[in-house]
From TrEMBL:
Residues 1-28 form the signal peptide. InterPro entries: DUF4440 (IPR027843), NTF2-like_dom_sf (IPR032710). It comes from the Bacteria. Residues 36-141 form the DUF4440 domain. This is DUF4440 domain-containing protein. Pfam families: DUF4440. Keywords: Signal. It comes from Ralstonia psammae.
Length: 152
């Protein structure tokens, strides 16, 4: 192979490798953004008690752990939130998203104002770990565990 052809070939290989290497972080960022957007859709659906959206965002074999130790499955999660107006507000802060293939985990601080059955309200300030699974139609919540945070 002539030197100029070898140089062009080598340059092409290097450029292709650079593009592939550059696309991996870009793909991860895109996936992390998609997960973050899905977490936001879940937050909005929880506040609005939108059962159809909630159902579309969770796995059939969901395990949903509360900071009290209470565990809910798919049916219990939907029953607790669909049309119940359980929350006045939910704010998520200090969120991090890590994507690993078709799985992602999200950590954040969850602050809420909760509507109680007697018409009163309570508040929650908890840490949360969520695990999401990627499907062709988007991300779905597979597992969630909350834990108590120190009082501020």
């Amino acid at each position: 192979m002539p030197l100029h052809a070898l140089t062009r070939h080598t340059a092409g290989v290097i450029m292709t490798a650079a593009l592939i290497a550059g696309s991996a972080p870009s793909q991860a960022a895109t996936n992390a953004e998609a997960v973050a957007q899905t977490v936001e859709r879940l937050r909005v659906a929880m506040v609005s008690s939108d059962g159809a959206t909630l159902k579309s965002l969770i796995e059939n074999d969901l395990t949903y752990g509360h900071s009290s130790g209470k565990l809910e499955d798919h049916a219990a999660f939907l029953k607790a939130l669909d049309g119940t107006n359980s929350f006045q507000s939910i704010a998520l802060t200090n969120q991090t998203v890590q994507v690993n293939g078709d799985n992602a985990w999200v950590r954040h601080v969850f602050d809420s104002v909760n509507n109680l059955p007697d018409g009163k309200t309570s508040t929650a300030h908890i840490g949360v770990l969520q695990v999401w699974k990627k499907h062709p139609d988007g991300w779905r919540l597979f597992a969630r565990q909350a834990y108590l945070l120190p009082k501020e």
